[in-house]
Amino acid sequence: MSIAYKQKGEYVNIIVGVSDMKVSNDADAVLIAYSLGSCIGITVYDPVAKVGGMLHFMLPESKLDEGKAQKNPFMFADTGIPGLLEAVCNLGAKKERLKVVVAGGAQVLDQKAFLNIGKRNQMAVKEMLSKHEITIDYEEMGGNVNRTIKLSIRNGETWLKTLGQEFRKI
Amino acid sequence: MTDIDTIMKGIDGLKPIPQVTQKVMAIAGNEMSSAADLADIIRYDPALTANLLKMCNSAFFGLSRKIESIDQAVAYLGMDQVVDMVIMNLGSENLKRPQKGYDLREGELWKHSVLSALMARDIAEKKSLRNKHLIFTASLLKDIGKAVLSKHIENYVDEIETAVRDRNITFQDAESLIIGIDHAELGAIIAEKWKFSGRMVDIIRNHHLRSGWKEDDLELAAIYVADTLCMIMGIGVGSDGLAYRFHPKVMEKLQFSDTDLQLIMADFAEKMHEVNDLLQTR
After folding, report:
1. Among A8-22, A75-89, B104-118, B268-282, the range of highest mean pLDDT
2. What is the third-level CATH fold of A12-163?
3. Is the CB of A38 inside 8 Å of chain B's CB atoms?
4. A18 vs B168: CB contact, 8 Å cut-off?
5. Which chain A residues are within 8 Å of B238, Cβ to Cβ?
6. Mean pLDDT over residues B160-178, rounded?
7. Chain B interface includes A156 (CB < 8 A)
8. Structural contact between residues A147 and A161, judged by C-beta atoms closer than 8 angstroms
9. For B201-240, how does the pLDDT look when each residue is reduced to its tens digit (9 = 90+)?
10. DSSP assignment of A52-65, as one string?
11. Taking the model in full, what pTM does it have?
12. Is A15 on the interface with B (CB under 8 A)?
C-alpha cells in the first residue's frame, strides 16, 4: 500500500497523517502517527503473518458528513476501523491473531460534554473494536497530553511517546 | 528561575519584520486603498514577489492557470488573499525552526500557526466579522513567544508538566509559575517591540483567554476557537499538549454548535494536503 524507497536493511518511517491509514508487510517499515490530540491512533499487528497497520482517525461518526466519509473513510472511527481491518486482512493478517494498541483521545482542560471529541473518540473505538470481536491489548487514552505512536513491522514492537518525554516501548 | 532579562535578550535573535510587510498591512487597513496600490508595493521586492508567486501557484489555491505576475495574483485571488500571503511570509522564518523546549519538530509550530490562521479567517468569514486581516495576523503570530521561550523551558519541562498535573493549572500558568513569564505574555512584548497595534498586542497576550473575555469580542473568539480546534486535531501541538482551558461561552456567543465545529475540522482535514503544499512554498 505504501511506497517507500530505501537502502537495504534501513528502517523507513511511513507517516500516518490525520485521517489516514497505512498497512505494510515490509519488515523495514515503521508506521508512525505524530501528535495525536483528541484523534486516536490504532495499531494492529499479526505476529504470524508479520503484517501491521495503523489508523489515525479524527472524529467518531461518519454520519457527520457521509460524502466526506465516502471520499476518506479514515477520517471517522466507524468507517476507518473496518477499513483498517480489511486492509491488514488483505495482506494476509488474521483478525483473531491481531495485537491491538490504542492511544490518543485527549481533551482540553475543563472540557465537559460540548465538543469533547477525545471522549467520544474513545467510546467509538471501543464500540467498533468490540463489534468486530477484537480486544485491546494495550491502551493509553485521555488526559490533556499529546501522544505519538509507532509500530515496527519487523517484530510488532510498539512505541509510545507523550510529547515532552522520550519514547517508551510498550 | 531563569533570569527574565536573559529571556528578553532572546527577542533580538528573531528575524525582524520586513518593512514591506508593514506597508502592506497599512494598505490592508485602509479602505481607500486599491489593488494597484498593493501590487505596486510588492513588485519592488523581488524576493517577496517570487515567494508570493510560488504560493499562488500551490495546490492550495488550485488555480487552473499559472500566475506569473503580481498583477495577475491580485486579479485572480483578490486583495484579501494576497495580503494574507504577504503576512504569512513575515512569520515563517521565526516559526519554522524546531522548538525543542516544546518538543516541536522543524516546521510544526509553523504548520500550527498557518492552519489556525486559515481556520480563524474561515470562521471570520462564516460569522461576517470585520478586520479579517487582524484576525489572520494575530492568529498566525499568537505563539511567536514560544520561538523565544522554547530554549528556556527546555530544562523545566518536567517541572512544568508536574505543576499542570498536580495543581490542575494550564501549561501557560505553569510557565509563568516556573519560568516567571509565559509564551503569550512574551508574544505580546515581541508584538509591541515590532510596533504592532495595541489591539494586536492585546489579542496575542490573551489568546488563551486567561485574563477573561469580553462577550462582544468575537474577533478574539474566532482566534481562540481556531486555536482550540487545531489542538484537538493535534496540529503542531507539542509538550504543552491540550493543557489549556475550554470556554464553552465562546462557542455559544459565536453560535457554533458541536456539529458546526466538527465540520470545520473535517473541512480542514480534507484540505490538509493542499495546506501542506502551501507550507512547502516557504
Report:
1. A75-89
2. 60s Ribosomal Protein L30; Chain: A; (3.30.1330)
3. yes
4. no
5. 146, 163-164
6. 94
7. no
8. yes
9. 999 999 999 888 898 999 999 999 999 999 999 998 999 9
10. EEEEEE-BS-GGG-
11. 0.92
12. no
